[in-house]
Design brief:
The chain is mostly helical. Among the domains are: 113 residues, no CATH class; 128 residues, no CATH class; 103 residues. It has a 4-stranded antiparallel sheet. Strand 2 and strand 3 form a beta hairpin. Helix 5 runs antiparallel to helix 6, helix 10 packs parallel to helix 12 and helix 14 packs antiparallel against helix 15. The protein is elongated and about 120 Å long. Keywords: Metal-binding, Zinc, Zinc-finger. This is SWIM-type domain-containing protein. It comes from Sporosarcina limicola.
Length: 526
């Protein structure tokens, strides 16, 4: 028979309380899937989707229809304190929760109950964190950061940033009161939140580097901020005396860092920087390094070879590094380059030479296949800088420019100018059609002052290009070039050649009145 929701709630208040207590202990707000079901149930109530109610007197049960895209039917038995739903779920689904919540809300505040439910979970976490053991911290922080793991890549980055900020707020009351423990707890938290958000972050930043949008900028800023805070925590711990009770925590940090760095994918530079940060600043001891090397030796990941090579660099074991670089291929150039940069920063010339010698045969293929077109000039300059720092011969460095193609024009131009090979520099400008503005920013001024005859043909090409544009502004630019050519000719003692040349230009373009006027003003004859 039909019965109002208020009547049912009044007659079965005690049974409804039992249902609510069952829900309170069965569901945890820290578990994302369970919290999501609760939020959906509240949404169903707010949308007015619960009802109508039919009471079954034979079984002291209520039958409720929930309206929506797909309507569901829920049965609540007050005798047996049991629920059933046509959605097929065996646990507390949003439909069952919505019916119980709807009945409870007739004479109680559902908002207060939800607040207490969430506060109880926070109190449980605070109680666990007060145990002050690595396991307790890891369990609580894993639960706290779990929502970040469930965010889909298709979700708006704003949702990810908002969820992260909520977690930042929730972690504040969990932090220890003692100042000695605060940096260590912060360190644990930053490692957990980085690991939890890595799938989403790497999905947005580690894929197609050609596309960039506002949300991607948000994610990039989030990652930079987390890494900065992680460095601050490491610095704070390193500046304070180490507590005896903290030994176990430090040992677990090694496992957390290794898991984060090796068991995640994409953005290897950032993961490697985190790994280096800890092993260079928190654990700078040979004994700790050797223990870590024994663990890495059992890792099957290709990236584990890079970490082993990292310790070889720190310990100066060049023989071991020479064996490790046998694993270098075109597929892992990107993972070896961060180690090369580290060797350069340490001025480890021999180590850098070993790495670059192994990478050299694969640089050309890697450039064409994996480096985005917009980033290629920067990549070429970086590689040439590494080769120079590794004391490679000039012949070896120059031979690589054949692989770089147009991407290496700027770097090769600088290479030629430094060696005052201006004839080859001018030919390079011709070959790739480099604009006058780019040439002037490069070595043109140096060439004119050192070897003007080498760049005369190049300047002639630029002048003729300006004349073809057929406007007074371009004519003035052409005359400025002629003046530079005039000075160069005078300096090199080619006065007769210059006068013949400029007269030939006048004769060829005598119908261009504006050009003739500008050339006359320029007083171009010697």
């Amino acid at each position: 028979m039909q019965m109002t929701v208020e009547r049912i709630s009044y007659l079965h208040e005690s049974e409804i309380d039992i249902f609510m207590n069952t829900i309170k202990h069965a569901l945890q707000p820290g578990i994302d899937t369970e919290a999501l079901e609760v939020r959906r149930a509240v949404t169903l109530i707010r949308n007015g989707s619960v009802g109508p109610y039919r009471f079954d007197t034979s079984d002291d049960a209520v039958l409720v229809t929930l309206l929506g895209v797909e309507s569901e039917h829920v049965r609540l038995s007050f005798d047996r304190i049991a629920t059933n739903c046509t959605c097929g779920s065996d646990t507390w689904c949003s439909h069952r929760l919505a019916v119980v919540f709807h009945l409870y809300s007739q004479f109680h505040s559902l908002t207060d109950w939800l607040h207490e439910w969430r506060r109880t979970d926070a109190q449980k976490m605070m109680l666990s964190i007060s145990e002050r053991t690595p396991k307790a911290w890891i369990n609580v922080l894993s639960r706290l950061t779990l929502p970040l793991r469930s965010i889909s890549l298709t979700e708006n980055p704003g949702v990810f940033i908002h969820e992260s900020s909520l977690i930042d707020q929730k972690v504040v009351p969990l932090s220890p009161f003692e100042w000695e423990w605060k940096p260590l707890f912060e360190l644990y938290y930053r490692l957990h939140i980085l690991d939890a958000g890595w799938t989403y972050v790497s999905g947005h930043l580690g894929g197609d580097t050609k596309s960039f949008f506002h949300g991607k900028w948000y994610v990039q800023n989030w990652l930079v901020e987390q890494l900065d805070k992680l460095r601050d925590s490491v610095t704070a711990i390193g500046a304070k005396p180490k507590l005896f009770e903290a030994d176990a925590f430090h040992e677990h940090i090694k496992d957390l860092v290794r898991t984060f760095s090796l068991h995640n994918s994409e953005l290897f530079d950032e993961r490697f920087s985190v790994y280096r940060l800890f092993w260079q600043h928190l654990f700078p001891m040979d004994a700790a390094w050797n223990d870590e090397l024994a663990i890495l030796a059992n890792e099957k990941s290709e990236e584990a070879h890079i970490f082993i090579a990292f310790f070889s660099l720190l310990q100066g074991k060049h023989d071991q590094l020479s064996k490790l670089v046998d694993n270098v291929s075109a597929d892992n150039v990107a993972t070896w380059l961060p180690l090369a940069h580290l060797a350069e920063s340490y001025e480890e010339t021999e180590t850098l030479a070993i790495i670059m010698k192994a990478l050299l045969p694969f640089i050309g293929d890697y450039l064409k296949q994996d480096v985005p077109l917009a980033n290629r000039p920067f990549f070429v300059r970086d590689i040439d800088g590494l080769l120079e720092a590794a004391d490679f011969s000039e012949e070896a460095r120059e031979s690589m420019f054949a692989y770089y193609g147009e991407s290496g024009v700027d770097v090769y131009a600088d290479f030629l100018v430094e060696r005052e090979r201006f004839t080859e520099w001018a030919a390079l400008m011709h070959r790739y059609g480099v604009s006058y503005e780019e040439a002037e920013e490069g070595g043109l001024k140096v060439a004119l002052s050192t070897e003007p005859t080498a760049v005369m043909p190049l300047l002639h090409t630029y002048a003729m290009h300006f004349i073809k544009e057929k406007n007074r502004h371009s004519y003035r630019r052409a005359v400025k070039l002629f003046k530079k050519m005039k000075i160069g000719s005078k300096k090199s003692g080619k006065t007769d050649f210059w006068n013949q040349y400029i007269d030939a230009v006048r004769e060829k373009n005598r119908r261009l009145r504006a050009l003739m006027e500008e050339m006359e003003k320029g007083n171009l004859n010697l």
